[in-house]
Every structure is written in C-alpha cells, then in structure tokens.
Amino acid sequence: MHRILSRGVALAMVLTPLAPVSAQTQMELNVKAGNAFTKADKRLNDIYQKLMAKISSSGQASLRDVEKIWIQFRDQECAFETLATVDGSIHPMVLLECKTRLTDQRIKDLEAQLNCEEGDLSCGGQ
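RESULT FIELD:
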C-alpha cells in the first residue's frame, strides 16, 4: 500500500510541471482580470467605431451621449457592487471582473444595433 501511494505521489510530482500554469498570487489574478477588461474594452471600442460609421449624424450624436452615460453607469455600478472589497487586495480583480461583465453585455447591445436589419424599428440612429 505504501509503495502504491509513493508511486502516486511521485507521478503527481512529475506531472505537476506539465499542468497549465495559472495565476497563483492575488497580483497575478489582478493582472489577469486587467488583461480581460482591456481586451473587452478594445472590442467595445471597435464595435462602437463600426456602429458610428454606419448610423446617421443624429444617431452618432445620440450614441456619443449614451456611451458617456453608459461608462458612468458601468463605473458607478461596479463601485457599488464591489463596496465590500474596497480595502482588500482582491478589490482590483473584483472591480475589473464587474467592468468586464458589463462591457461584454454592452458589446452584445451594440452588436445588435450594428447588425440591425433595415426596417427594424428597434434600430437606433439608422
């Protein structure tokens, strides 16, 4: 029995370096969350630019105003949702995860507008 257990431990020790490396410290987790948010934010900006190029000038003005308000909403919503972690080392990660989640939802909303078919009355700024 001891020999079987020893072989299992030895095998686990050999295979551990082959396992995918993931973030281990809070700082690494914070950086990972920051990278995810940066990626989502870039995608949002790309879709926003495509939509701006597609819609009317009055639609562009409206979208600019809405986007400014949406950014304020996102930031205030995430500040509220993360109040419990404000003084902790986990706070940057939790805050960025919230911003990423809301940004991902905004991407879906803008993509729906970008891919809106002519005649669809839910299309803004067409």
